[in-house]
Amino acid sequence: MATRWGICGAGNISHDFCVALRTLSHEDHQIAAVAARSLESAEKFAKTHGIPKAYGSYQELVKDPNIDVVYIGVLHTHHLQVGLLFLNAGKNVLCEKPFAMNLREVRQLISAACENNVFLMEAVWSRCFPVYAEVGRLLSESAVGEVKMVKAYFGLSLLDRERITQKEQGGGGLMLIGMYCLQFALMVFKGERPESIHATGVLLPSGVDESMVVVLKFSGNRMAVCACSIACDLPNDATICGSKGMIRVGHPMHCPTVLELNGKKTEFPLPEPGLPLNFPNSTGLRYEAEEVRRCLLKGLKESIKMSLTDSELLTEIMDEARRQVGVVYEQDSQ
């Protein structure tokens, strides 16, 4: 039986997710319906992607009995409200990153999933890429000896995009792209809680972070340095430095196709898209869709690749980094 997807939101990332789903077998994945805030948007999206049902409200998608899992691709300021809508209706959910605006909201989503006995996963698609699996394999074999330092950088020139610079829309470098650097470090250190978190950064007049550097210290004198910016391009790669060598995840580190072990390069090519994409390497969204299907077929309520505990720790670190730098959203005072 195919996994029947309901798509919540008809924006850019939902478009790319649907393009990625089309690179997988129709026998395994089918897009059953799409819902948007207006029927016109939903119908246009459905026509583009060949989706049989289009709804002009999220509530209509909630009521559709022929949906196995809902992909939530709306703006993250709405993840809590929309996520609870589906979870409390007994729907399995794959929710785009960042999971929510802060740890309090993330815990509300997790509680709802547990109370309704449904699957929930934060769509940190990076964790599902073959390159990340290879990193895990190499670390398990101590290919670079004892890991001492992790460096991850992600920066893009995005100051001309209002959504990314406005506090009301959850803007700022850490929430939008910096979280990829942090999740990489946490993956390398197997979800261990850091002993200390030190963050510094600069703010835009709107109050969101333009650039931020977060230094994490872990047990055994191991460290991670994570830097992000929406004001300039950074190398957008990640490096794991060990006592016997180095692993480098090539640009773009959040959706990589190249890995280097002590200078020896291995490539992991992606399938070609059937339609133009909005973001680089987005056919790689197929990997998280495959992971969701695997979990559902096994009756799992979360994924080991990006567990709910992983999401809690990631959000907790982001909250603390924001606190130190002075980034406060309206949701933080609720």
UniProtKB/TrEMBL annotation:
Q: Which GO terms describe its molecular function?
A: D-xylose 1-dehydrogenase (NADP+) activity; nucleotide binding; trans-1,2-dihydrobenzene-1,2-diol dehydrogenase activity
**Main EC class the enzyme belongs to:** oxidoreductase
User: Domain named GFO/IDH/MocA-like oxidoreductase: which ranges?
Assistant: 132-248
Domain of life assignment: Eukaryota
Write down the EC number.
Answer: 1.1.1.179, 1.3.1.20
The record's InterPro entries line, in alphabetical order, gives: Gfo/Idh/MocA-like_OxRdtase_N (IPR000683), Gfo/Idh/MocA_domain (IPR050984), GFO_IDH_MocA-like_dom (IPR055170), NAD(P)-bd_dom_sf (IPR036291)
Q: Where is the Gfo/Idh/MocA-like oxidoreductase N-terminal domain?
A: 4-121
Q: Which UniProt keywords apply?
A: Oxidoreductase
- A Pfam family found in this protein is GFO_IDH_MocA_C3
- What does it catalyze? D-xylose + NADP(+) = D-xylono-1,5-lactone + NADPH + H(+); (1R,2R)-1,2-dihydrobenzene-1,2-diol + NADP(+) = catechol + NADPH + H(+)
What the record says about family reads:
Belongs to the Gfo/Idh/MocA family.
This protein is called what? Trans-1,2-dihydrobenzene-1,2-diol dehydrogenase
UniProt organism field? Cyprinus carpio carpio
